[in-house]
Amino acid sequence: MPLEIIPILALLLVVLGVVGAIYLLTYLLGPRRPGDVKLSPYESGKEPIGDARIRFPIRFYLIAMLFVLFDIELVFFYPWAVVYRKLLSAGSFILIEMVIFIALLLIGYVYAWKRGALQWD
Amino acid sequence: MFGMDWIDLGILLTKVMLVIAVNFLILMIMELAERRVSAFMQDRVGPNRVGPFGLLQPVADGIKFLFKEEITPSQVERTLYWLAPALVLVPALLTFSVIPFGMSFSAFGREITLQIADLQVGLLFIFALVSLAVYGTVLGGWAANSKYPLLGGLRASSQMISYELSIGMSIIGVLMLVGSLRLSEVVAYQTGSLFTILPRWNIFTQPLGFLIFLIASFAETNRLPFDLPETEPELVGGYHTEYSSMKFAMFFMGEYIALITTSALLTTLFLGGWDVPWVDEAALGSWGVLLSLAAFAVKTGFFLFLFLWVRWTLPRFRFDQLMHLGWKVLLPLAIVNILATGLFLYLAP
């Protein structure tokens, strides 16, 4: 196990302790007076109509899919950025390489834009 | 134990306790400052009754939250409903671990870094935790099984993942300059001066990256003008509508702690971290350490005030405007920033 992770684990333990204490204290200290109306979902004071497992616009799914695509592409930027200066001394290859990668990424981006995947109204 | 002796363990625990205590202290100050600053900006007085100048107001609020009834509405998915506030608060508190908040010094015969862990992948670690925070918000909204929280949770998910792209791309320029994901090296890179008149902070070498990061961090922390997941006028409270007592407060604590971490991160990435320009802290001994801590506090405090200032100055965006800004403005700009930085480093090494 790498040594540098230990301090973070120590922090995690303390944080979990603090959060656990908050849960426990509020559970112990708060009163409990349940009632039918109190426990019903909040809909601005009206009788709730149906439950909340409703269909929602497909745009949210589209955004989620686009995010996954772009985020994976973003991951490739990180190692490239870290070694960029080092490899630049060996010539312009690393720059040209990334220009090609970004060009490919932009083709997909423009396609998504033109097909209206980024349109919200 | 893991190559550590008792002194190492003591130092580590002291740092951990210190970071958590300071985070909670600033959280309380922010809770009060939010109300006092907003009152000041709107020509009101704000809470000033509890303690001198209302300074004990956050304590009173905390006690009140503890003694309030915990209402668990009958329609909720219990496990996730209970887990969601912790999922917001825990990652937010962990993020601070890799941020260096002062100059390292030696005591007890060893080097003490003012940072909990100097991870080699520090920045990636931060972004991993920031991504985790989305789960708390989305699950909180979904598990409540009520319409307003559901809409709030949906908006939160779309907004946070959209701006995560911009925020992730905006720091690529910084990484290209620094050549490391280690945050202590990001700070070390920014010491010295630029064209002799400016400190060599990344805000001057990466102005576009800084701007994108700043705007996107407003969206990531759900702050006005991008607080669409919890707009009071249209969604009541958004994803935390069905929460009460301390579970409700934990969403807010998570949000404020994320704000503190974001300010600290902005300071580290773009304002030189704990570095005071043109001062060699290492030569000043223990005063240098105090100076570095003060510099870090001042810079972070500036960003914290900026978040308050903007909140009470700008009106809220509409959701389509928010998505438009994220996908069609900030994302292309971030790509332009990467290309420009690459070209600049190629032409002027």
Q: What is the assembly state of the chains in this entry?
A: heterodimer
Terminal Cα separation of chain A, in Å? 51 Å
List the helices and strands of chain B in order: HHHEEHHHHEEHHHHHH
Main sheet strand line-up of chain B: 1-2
Tally of helical runs of chain A: 3
Number of strands of chain A: 0
Helix content of chain A: 55-70%
Mean pLDDT of chain B: 84
Number of helices of chain B: 13
Global morphology of chain B: globular
User: β content of chain B, as a range?
Assistant: under 5%
**Nearest-angstrom radius of gyration of chain B?**
21 Å
Strand content bin of chain A: under 5%
Count of spatially separate domains of chain A: 2
Order of helices and strands of chain A: HHH
Secondary-structure-based class of chain B equals: mainly alpha
Mean pLDDT of chain A: 83
Which chains make the largest contact? Answer: A-B, 70 and 83 residues
How would you explain this protein's 3D organization?
The complex is a heterodimer of chains A (121) and B (349). Chain A is mostly helical and 121 residues long. Chain A is built from three helices and no strands. Chain A has two domains: 5-39; 58-114. Chain A has helices spanning 6-29, 59-88, 93-114. The longest helix of chain A has 30 residues, at 59-88. Chain B has 349 residues and is mainly α. Chain B has one domain (68-347). In chain B, strand 1 (102-107) and strand 2 (110-114) form a beta hairpin. In chain B, helix 1 (6-41) crosses helix 11 and helix 3 (78-94) packs antiparallel against helix 4. The model of chain B has no long low-confidence stretch (mean pLDDT 84). Chains A and B meet through helix 1, helix 2 and helix 3 of A and helix 1, helix 3, helix 5, helix 6 and helix 11 of B.
